[in-house]
Structure formats: C-alpha cells, structure tokens
Amino acid sequence: MALKIASRFRRLLQRPGSIDLGPYERLTQLVGEAEESVVALTDEELTEAVGELRTTGGLHEDEQIEFLALARDAGNRAIGERAFDGQVVGALAMLQGRVVEMATGEGKTLAGAIAAAGYAVGGRKVQILAVNDYLARRDAEWMGPVYELLGVTVSHIGQASTPDERRTAYEAEVCYVPVSEVGFDVLRDRLVTDVADRVTAELDVALVDEADSVLIDEARVPLVLAGATRTEELDEDVVQLVRTLRAGVDYEIDGDGRTVALTDKGTDKVEAALEGINLYEDDNLDRLTQINVALHAEVLLRKDVDYLVRDGKVSLINNNRGRIAKLQRWPDGLQAAVEAKEAVPVSDSGEVLDSITVQALVKGYKTLCGMTGTAVVVGESLQEFYEVDVAVVPPNKPNIRIDDPDRLYLTIEQKNVALVEHIAEVHEAGRPILIGTHSVEESEQLSDRLEAAEIQHVVLNAKNDAEEAAIIAEAGVPGTVTVSTQMAGRGTDIRLGGRDETHDKDKAIELGGLYVIGTGLHASRRLDDQLRGRAGRQGDPGGSLFFASLADELVTRYSVSSGLRPHPDDTGRLTDRKSLGVLEHAQRVADGANAELHRTTWSYHRLTGQQRAILLDTREKVLTEDLAAAELAEKAKERYDELVEEVGEDTVKDAARRIALHHLDRRWTDHLAYLADLREGIHLRSLAGGIVHLKPIDEFNKSAIASFDTLVADSWTDAAETFKTAEITSEGLDEAASGVPRPTATWTYLINDNPFGTEADRILGRLRNAIKPESVAEAEEILPEEFDEDELPEELRDADDEDLPEELREADDDDEEDPKDSKK
C-alpha cells in the first residue's frame, strides 16, 4: 500500500511542467498597470528609478512589479521590443529559480535579460551560460542597450578572451559566457599559486540558455585541464597493420557500435605480424594498447561525422551542436591514433591536472534558473539532478504549425530517394525549406543528391559554421533550401522573409511558411521537437516532416527489428503499426539509455566532487593563509628557522606555500589518474564476486575513499621532505631546482566520458549479441522501486485509498484491469 501511495505522491509533486502560472499571471497584470506611470519618465528618470530599487537582499514582490514595469519599458525604448505578457511571466519564473519553457521565437533572450537585470538590481551577480561564443557575444551586444538603460553593467567572454579581459568581464553584474569557458576558468583558478592570478568571481546566479541541452545533453561531459608531458605517437607499423584487419573476421564491433575488439583470429594475425610476440604478456601491454586505440580510430571514428581534417589538424565535431569543438580532443592516446590515421602531425599529450563535469559546475551556483524551447520532456531529470522545476509559458500567439506524421521506409536508399523527391515537390512551389541532417557527411551527401536533381540550396555544417548568421538570416526567404547539420542545437531564430522580413514575407506566409524536413529521427524526441520548432514562430504558419528507415542507426542500435515481416509499398514506404512501433520504441530506448548514462556518470563523479571539495578547502587555506608555513615549521623546524634567519620570514612563507601547493596538486593529479584506471576495470569486480553480487559503484567508492584517505597527510609529508632540501634564496624558491616545477604548458579540452565504453559494456555487449533472439524480445519487466515509508508525509503513511487526496487516489481495479498498461 505504501509503495502505491508513494508512486502517486511522487507523480503529483514531481510532474514536469506542472508549476502553476497563476501567481505569475496575476503579478503580470499588476506590472501592466504600473507601466502606465513609467511611460512618462525620461530615460534618466527611468535609470534613476531602477537605482532606487537596488538592494542586497533580492527584490520583494512589490519591488519586482515596479522593476518589471521599468524593464519592459526599457526594452521598448532601447531596442524597440516591448516584452509580451508571456515574456514577463517567464522573467518572473526565472527570478523564482525555475527553468522556463518558451517556444522558439517567443523572446527568450529578452525575458532572460530582464530576469538577469532583476537579479542584479537585487544585489546578485549573474552569469548567463550560453552554448557558444557566438550566442554569448550576440546576446550581450543585442541586450546591451537595455542593461545600460537599467543601469546594470554587462559583459561577455569568448574563447579568445585574455585573462585580464576575463577578470574584468566576471566583475560585471551580468556576464554572458559559454558554459565551457566558465568551467575552464574555474579549473585554472584552482591551480593558481597566487590569489592575484584568479580570474573568476564567486559563482552566484546561473541563468542557463538552452537549458535542456546544457543541463541534460552536455551535463556529463568532463571539462579537463591538462599539463604537458609528452608527445604520443603511434608506430607506423601499427597503423598500417590495423588497416589490413577485416571486419567480422579479425575484429568484431559490439551491438551498440561503441567498442571494437580483436577476435582470436585477429589476435593471431597481429601477433604474427609483430614477430610472434604475445600481446597479453606484461612487457607488451603498451603495444596492445596501441593496437586497440588504432583499431578504435580506424573502425569507429568516421571522418566528417566524428571529426574533420582542416588546416592540417584533426578537429572534433560537437554532436549536439553540429559545430567544430575547438577545444575538444580524445583522451588516452586516441587523439594521436586519429592523427596517425589521417597522416597529420601528432599533437602534444598530457596528464589530467583536474576536471569537472558541466553538472558539477552548474550545481556550484547558489541559484539556478534557465530557459529553453523544450523543457517539459526532461522535467523529471531536471528535478532529479538539479532540484529545479519547469514553468511552461504559453505562446503569445497560438502555434499553427502542421506537423505531418513521420514517413518510414525499409532501406536508407529508398528513404533518400523519397526525401529528394519530396524536397523537389515542395521547392517547386517556392516554399522555404530547412532540412536538418545529423552529420557533416550526411549533409554533403544530401547536397550531392540535390545538385543531381538541380535543386539550388545552401549548406550549413561544421565546415562553414562561421557563415551561420548569414545563412540562417535568409533561410525563411521563399525559394530557399537550407541544408543544416544539427539545426536543433543552433539557438537562432528563422524569420519569414529573411532577417528584416522584407524578402517576400507575404508570399512565404501564403505558401505555408517555413517547411522543416528531418532526414532521420534523433535519439531524443526532444531534439526532433527543437528542429520542428524552427518553423511556426510567433504564430507564423509552418510545417514539418521527418523521414526515417529501418536501417537508420537509431533503429539498428536501439531496437530489434529482425522479427518484423514488413510489407512496403512500391516506394519502400512502411505504414503498418508494427514497423512504426519499432521506430518509436528505438527512440524511447535511446532516450532511456542516455538518461541512465547521465545517472551513472553522475554517480561516479559525485564522490570525486566531494573529495575535491575537501582538497580545495585545504588548498584555499594554503593559498590565502599561513597554513603551509605553520605545517612546515612544525615538521622541519630546524630548516625553517635557518631559512628565516638567512632570507627572511616572508620569503620562506612564500616558498612553503608554493611547495605545499605543488604537492597537493601532484597528489590530486595522481589520484585522478588512479580513479580513471579504477573506473575502467571496476565492473570486473562484480563478475568476480561469485554468488555475492558486488555493485560496481560501491566497489569504486570503497577504493576511491581508501585512496583519498591519506592524500592530504601524504602531501604534507612530501612537502616537508622537499622543504628540507629546497633551493631557497633571497630571490625566492627555485621551483625547477627544488623538484617542484609547474607544468610547462596547460590547455583545456572536453572529453567524452569513457569513449571506449567500460569493461562491462564490452562484456554485456558480447552476451547480448550471443543471446539476441530472432524476433522482437519482450520488454524486461520493470520491478517496483523500493520505497521507504518514512519518505511520505506522516499523515499519508497509514492512509486508506479513500482517505487520499484525489490526485493520489486510483482504484485498485485500474492497476490490474488492462494488461497492456501493466506491460507499459
């Protein structure tokens, strides 16, 4: 009984998108009434009125009403945009720490600026976390006049910003900055040896643009600070040898396409080619690692899909954005393997000095809010990982976009033929078309087919993303066909008639508005909805249609279709419910797999974050106080007193601080390397447990705690040993001569967590392939979640069904009546 009540109680309290907008709408009416007196103010008087509201404790309700009236009028005066009621509601929700869902074209940028200014007037520092440099700069400059009229300082940061520019920008009341840049700055600040070298300000308010993408899709991506150590270069004979291996004979790819492994025959072939060595002997493990990474690079990483080769360098493609990931690289020698594969110079390698996930970074802010076009779908995840609720703001004008049902085909070739024919048919009428593809390779292949069909078009992908603004500006002009990679993640509006809406806007409306075509479904329906949302902005007409095939990667990777007996028509199109159900099932499985990966990644990073916090607390005391001097004076008193007499106490304190910081950082770097190795093999312990099932995460935490337990104490021991023999003169500490050098160079990058997959991924993948049935398998039974009655409110613990609130009450018969429901 308690389990059933708990389930209903949770659905009631954590139903995504269920925040009541009534209070916000009531306040918005009052804002409209207050605005009447604001219109008569001069610009100077408006700025002065905002100044009178400034406080350090946040704006109270009456003050929020007055501020929003002033801000709404400021937007009208400064940039000619008076916030709609929906934008005011959105700003209010963000000021209350919500993630706001507003449809594309509904003015999220202005709503976010008003909310940010409201926090600033209330005495808070706001960082608006953007997804890239372009949007951070664009929005800061676009909204700049509004902030100026409100008397709020604003700035922006990009990859090219210098340390001094960053330091100044972070001091502004509102700073627009890519989320990765904040993370990298935080990492660099953690390694400074002088407080004056820091650039970041205290993390106070995070207002996240494209919140679902940043907080969910990219949350598990580790941001890394590395220090130069060596250049990793694969032997040429290994590169050439791997190219001779045959799929299905010498190596096998797992069912998910994430890992590749040599077969017994492949192992024999490789060992014979390498003069009969045994790859699995200890002396040859380095060579085995080279073979594995070279095989991964050759087989699983695809040019123009996962990376580009440009200007003699391998550049990774951000799969969520369809852009070059300028600071991203693969770890563990994989980067060097791809560079060897493409015959470009091998870049420096390094050791990880520190890392942080986007999720851990964002959770470091005191207040979190945000905005996006698709938040409800991930509402439960936002509540689970960030404890924030979603507020859905209805559009200013009703959405009249027509979304046609997905078209499914048997083969990719049949899909592509139908796709081009449909594009030609729509284009002939002159309707503007936006086509969303999944990769650079796919966009260029489609471009070739459109050229063969004599359809004029323009392509936007990672190879020309610098031209994005110009291309997107004209995508709504009649007769225009735009082929884009990952349009769902580009964060820009498309106006009918072009940027200034003067190029035949009326004709575009008459033709039905922008027509969005997807060349395949994404792993998440939410990304499909983002792509669809490019059409039908602000009540404009529009339409969308997605094409798919049973041979698409989404289906082959996440669903089992071998039991189907499809009956396509002459064009290869499938319309039966079973085939369409396979497509929907694949997308649901992919969504669930990504959510579970997020959950697992966070589980492993949570303890590391707690340990990092302990270390940083000690490091902060060393950096800002005389803790190092006190510790080393106690552990090496004779040496300390001798040095104080020779070079002075201030010089000794500075040297002690630098030595202590070096060893704390060194121990932490070694600990991170240990954790990386531990996580890679931890799943083997669960297999070694015999009858007793050992949870990998529990075993990981147990070993991680044991490793960290003496880390700080060992650092002090190391520091004392160094201090006794360090070269310390009146000029200070000679770091190189004393054996405590700083990294000769550091750089930042992003990595995909566990690119090879865990050992469990490889083992379970083989098991799954071995037992995969010929027909569609029944979904695994989902067992009820264990629930502690103490989590329920006291008055509900012993309640009968009839005593429950209506929202929690369900007839027992309903739970058992429909067998289909129970399977779901």
From TrEMBL:
GO terms for molecular function: ATP binding; protein-exporting ATPase activity. SMART domains: SecA_DEAD, SecA_PP_bind. Belongs to the SecA family. Gene3D superfamilies: Helical scaffold and wing domains of SecA (1.10.3060.10), P-loop containing nucleotide triphosphate hydrolases (3.40.50.300), SecA, preprotein cross-linking domain (3.90.1440.10). Residues 6-576 form the SecA family profile domain. Part of the Sec protein translocase complex. Interacts with the SecYEG preprotein conducting channel. Has a central role in coupling the hydrolysis of ATP to the transfer of proteins into and across the cell membrane, serving as an ATP-driven molecular motor driving the stepwise translocation of polypeptide chains across the membrane. Its EC number is 7.4.2.8. It comes from the Bacteria. It comes from Kribbella capetownensis. Keywords: ATP-binding, Cell membrane, Cytoplasm, Membrane, Nucleotide-binding, Protein transport, Translocase, Translocation, Transport. This is Protein translocase subunit SecA. The lineage of its organism: Bacteria, Bacillati, Actinomycetota, Actinomycetes, Propionibacteriales. InterPro entries: Helicase_ATP-bd, Helicase_C-like, P-loop_NTPase, SecA, SecA_Actinobact-type, SecA_CS, SecA_DEAD, SecA_motor_DEAD.
